[in-house]
């Protein structure tokens, strides 16, 4: 009679690390398959949010932003100015109110974002050789709107002014070349680098999408571990890992890590290969940065749930830290201009360092060495937060007092 081979179960404390990892991975996958909402938070929901974010900025450049013109001159010159404004790509002249008060009403009702005021006697002043000015009022609450508007208005007014001045000089006997040299002895040539047309897709979509992903990554880590604490199933989870906390955490977070790494790769491939924003610098540094962004926020989420041991509290903390992270990242307001406390908070967020890395390597074309510092910082976040979270879980999560909290 053949002797029966002893059956080895995965709950045995001496199970190999690989077997424990596989057991936790299967356990986590079964949990996700049973919860469509948690599975969607790793798959189609982040994808949909990122797609909507891209769609918002896909036009690239804001066109036909409404403005009004108060024309007190009613001359051929002022009508020419209005026609030139209408031809500018970013401007739509939607009205010509009779007074400044009426124009301000357009601004308050947000039917227009700027008012160009043409004074009386504008043409007469220019014909007699006197200086004249037009006034540009804009709604400063919308800096993104008026930035392009102001650039276009300045270009139109400068072009009209230069044409009037050159015509006057030519009438006084100067040649075209002499007139240009006299009018512009020193010329300023503006050259925009790394985003030549100030395209919002490159400026904002490339930065906002990683900002969205870091929210989902943190929530995924908090939810995965928090559900074990809430259900009081930590002993079963740890037993599947062979009583090894490192294996338990690795198996628990492997699926979110894989899912969000794929999201990050899709993000890079879509914008670089489909939308034409080629990676001009080190693609390797950028991809490693994406991977470290994922691991850093998984570690941060682990630390949050380990510190609170309560799913709801940890989710609130995750929202508090990750939701405003983009505002502190230095993309909308310079880091060096922030107050020291705000600057310190910004530096304490992995997103800030990832976006600095991305801005250097994606469009600015920096070599890989320029990103080593940011990569080390992201790796440091992963190690520090991950080790601290694992240590806290090891000390606190097996106590029944830590279970069942919402």
In words, what does this structure look like?
The protein has about 400 residues and is mainly α. Helix content is about 65%, strand content about 5%. It has helices at about 15-35, 35-40, 45-55, 75-85, 100-110, 120-125, 145-170, 175-185, 200-230, 235-240, 245-275, 285-310, 310-320, 340-345, 350-360, 370-395; strands at about 65-70, 90-95, 115-120, 135-140. It has a 4-stranded mixed sheet, with helices on both faces. Helix 1 (about 15-35) packs across helix 10 (about 235-240) and helix 1 packs across helix 11. The longest helix is centred in the middle third of the chain and has 32 residues, at about 200-230. The model is unreliable at about 1-10 (pLDDT under 50).
Which features characterize this protein?
elongated; 5% strand; 63% helix; 4 strands; 4-stranded mixed sheet; 406 residues
Layout of secondary structure:
Layout: H1 17-34, H2 36-42, H3 44-57, E1 65-71, H4 76-87, E2 91-95, H5 100-108, E3 114-118, H6 122-127, E4 135-138, H7 143-171, H8 176-183, H9 200-231, H10 234-240, H11 245-274, H12 283-308, H13 311-322, H14 340-347, H15 350-361, H16 372-396
Parallel strand pairs: 1-2, 1-3
Antiparallel strand pairs: 3-4
Structure described in brief:
The chain has helices spanning 17-34, 36-42, 44-57, 76-87, 100-108, 122-127, 143-171, 176-183, 200-231, 234-240, 245-274, 283-308, 311-322, 340-347, 350-361, 372-396, and strands at 65-71, 91-95, 114-118, 135-138. The protein is mostly helical and 406 residues long.
